[in-house]
Design a protein that fits this description.
The protein is an alpha+beta fold. It has six helices and 24 strands. 15% of the residues lie in helices and 28% in strands. Strands 3, 4, 5, 6, 9 and 10 form a six-stranded antiparallel sheet that branches. Strand 12 and strand 13 form a beta hairpin.
Length: 377
């Protein structure tokens, strides 16, 4: 007999009060009960009894969900999205019986390989969910997990249960703003910082009294979204040079896991939120420096881990013969003219708003490269 799982629908969704809708598996793939998912909710999210997975691709002809044990390079399960689970360009599926603490996930998409048209589908690649809230594989600065292929990213489902309490927005007038721009790792990594957790969000939290002594009332954080410091690493004069600054994003929705003092399995972002709350409680606002004009996938010679394998000719600006326009100077240029891409960027900003209560300032400069000011309602 199929188990049923109650899913509460908000009041007004069906022109009536809040009501519970029971979910049951409608199909089976091996031992996994599945059913069509919640098509308007991108990424992976917990639902009663399981997890909802939603991914959009215009050019793909098939999509598979890959489930991994934690830190394992090979999937323990491959669950194809049934053809009738695709509506338009959207694949969506609820998989029942999953515990988010026990797995990591990625996708595998199949489709045409016609580089001259910008189509470069490759089923041998694991594809990172562009809406992933946590990225695995590089929690330790300057290294990848043993056994992992370079740029083989996987995602985790994140539990959002941070308590903001009565945290309030400092509401500092712009004319009175005194901004200290800093790099999260660089600000406290040296022993002279005197912190217990150097190079982390927690380490920065320890320096709040110092910032207040300086008279700072606004901190601007250089990119804190997930990036790969090993991308393009090289040795010069006996020193290993990494991509230090973070202006090469891997995932817009995920905080950088190498900036945390402790690994936050399925709680990624908690240390960053504690930092934001502590800064706000001390009268200090926060501005996030964000990058939406290119990604770490680079050009034709760059890695292949997310947008290239989903819809390369939609997410990137391409020449008529399928090469990458490099207006960013970083190998590729995000195609912000396309409604799908604009929607992703807006969804990203809304995600940080909904999770943290932050509000974005008007200082988002074309092509979506600028700063987002954080605030509490």
């Amino acid at each position: 007999m199929n188990e049923t799982y109650p899913l509460k629908c908000p009041a007004g969704l069906h022109q009536g009060p809040e009501e519970a809708v029971c979910l049951i598996p409608l199909d089976w793939v091996g031992n996994f009960g599945i059913r069509p998912g919640l098509y308007e909710i991108n990424g992976a999210s917990v639902v009663p009894g399981g997890v909802n997975f939603t991914l959009s691709s215009h050019g793909a002809i098939a999509c598979e969900l890959l489930l991994f044990n934690r830190k394992s390079p090979e999937p323990f399960a491959v669950i194809p999205f049934p053809e009738h689970y695709r509506i338009g360009d959207v694949y969506s599926m609820i998989v029942f019986g999953l515990d988010i603490q026990e797995f990591e996930y990625a996708y595998r998409l199949d489709g045409p390989y016609e580089p001259e048209k910008g189509l470069v589908f490759d089923r041998s690649n694991y594809i990172l969910d562009p809406y992933a809230k946590a990225v695995t594989g590089q929690s330790e600065w300057g290294s990848h997990l043993p056994g992992e292929r370079a740029h083989q990213y996987k995602a985790r489902v994140v539990r959002n249960n941070f308590d903001w309490g009565d945290c309030k927005q400092p509401l500092i007038p712009m004319k009175d703003t005194i901004i200290y721009e800093l790099h999260v790792r660089g600000f406290t990594k040296h022993a002279s910082s005197g912190v217990k957790n150097p190079g982390t969000f927690a380490g920065l939290m320890e320096k709040i009294p110092y910032l207040k002594e300086l008279g700072v009332n606004t901190v601007e954080l250089m990119p804190v979204f997930e990036f790969d410091e090993m991308n393009g690493c090289r040795e010069m004069d006996g020193r290993l040079l990494l991509d230090y600054w973070g202006y090469n994003p891997v995932c817009f929705f995920a905080p950088n896991t190498s900036y945390t003092a402790q690994v936050e399995y399925n709680q990624e972002g908690m240390e960053l939120k504690r930092l934001i709350k502590e800064l706000n409680d001390n009268g200090i606002e926060v501005i996030l420096d964000v990058v939406f004009n290119h990604t770490a996938e680079g050009n034709e010679k760059g890695p292949f881990f997310s947008f290239k394998g989903i819809d390369n000719n939609i997410y990137y600006m391409l020449t008529p013969d399928g090469h990458y326009y490099n207006f960013s100077g970083c190998g590729n240029t995000i195609n912000c003219n396309h409604p799908v891409v604009r929607q992703l960027i807006l969804d990203c900003l809304r995600y940080w708003l909904s999770i943290t209560g932050w509000t974005a300032s008007a200082s988002i400069w074309p092509p979506f490269w600028g700063a987002a000011r954080t605030a509490r309602p």
